[in-house]
Design brief:
The chain is α+β, with helices and mostly antiparallel strands. The protein starts with a helix and ends in a 21-residue tail after the last strand. The strands form 2 sheets. A 5-stranded mixed beta sheet has the order 2-4-5-7-6, with helices on one face. It contains 5 helices and 7 strands.
């Protein structure tokens, strides 16, 4: 009994120190379990950069935006019939102003060079956009019992060279190296006639180089100036521009920016 009392404290000490010894033992797996249960640091996800277009590297196909409504600049074949007519097309004036009188002076010898420059069956042609303006003029004058007589319309560049060779005077004959507005299909030489087709009195005959042919000429008869001014008002109301030295000559707006042309005056004829 006395021996148990002496050994009891020793057993208590062993019992208390046993867990510490186990924790420090080389074979213990306590640290391993601690490592297994320790929190793992989270890695940031890799984000792919958004593709951008550069001059050297275009956008990938999947990143490029798809065009809506078809490709730009490509016409839908189903809309061809709905397109407006080409404003640059040369159109015969009589097809749209049937009561106009056409007397192309350069198809005769009755002109300032005294030579035939156009074929006998030449047509009076204008750009479509210029002709639409002339139609407005004819409609307005028709209400006054007046009609138009046309002396010159579109003029091929080849004819312009012939005129320049015979009369190289800028201001009266356009230099063919630059071309005139007649060569662009955007100029018209004309006068007024009554319902019977008789010409109204004007300050000078056609293709006169006198000062009396100028728009500001104050001489001549009052009736000739009134008729000249009546023609001018009708043409300007439709947007045409005057030629200050020729009362009969009018240009479509923006004519100088248009291309010079050299197309035949006779239907089916080859280029001059």
């Amino acid at each position: 009994m006395r021996l148990r009392r002496l050994l009891a404290p020793a057993w208590v000490g062993v019992w208390l120190l046993a867990p510490l010894a186990l924790a420090q033992s080389p074979g213990s797996n306590t640290q391993g379990r601690a490592r297994e249960t320790a929190p793992v640091a989270r890695q940031k996800p890799q984000v792919k950069p958004v593709p951008t277009a550069t001059p050297q590297q275009p956008l990938p196909v999947e990143a490029a935006s798809k065009p809506s409504g078809g490709q730009r600049g490509v016409r839908d074949p189903s809309t061809f019939e709905q397109l407006a007519p080409d404003p640059a097309e040369l159109v015969e004036v009589l097809a749209h102003i049937p009561d106009a009188l056409v007397e192309l002076r350069y198809a005769t010898r009755d002109n300032f060079v005294g030579e035939v420059m156009y074929p006998a069956d030449s047509r009076c042609l204008l750009r479509r956009d210029a002709l639409l303006r002339l139609v407005k003029v004819a409609d307005a004058l028709r209400a006054e019992q007046l009609r138009l007589k046309l002396w010159d319309c579109y003029r091929p560049l080849a004819v312009q060279w012939k005129l320049w060779e015979r009369f190289p005077k800028p201001g009266y004959v356009a230099d063919p190296r630059r071309g005139g507005n007649h060569n662009r299909g955007a100029a018209i030489d004309l006068t007024l006639v009554d319902a019977a087709g008789d010409e109204l009195e004007m300050p000078t005959p056609y293709d006169s180089f006198q000062k009396a042919a100028h728009q500001g000429y104050a001489g001549g008869t009052a009736r000739s100036r009134q008729n000249r001014d009546r023609l001018r008002r009708a043409m300007e109301a439709a947007g045409f521009r005057i030629n200050r030295s020729e009362w009969w000559h009018f240009d479509a707006p923006g004519a100088l920016k248009l291309p010079v042309r050299d197309e035949p005056l006779v239907a089916g004829e080859a280029q001059p």
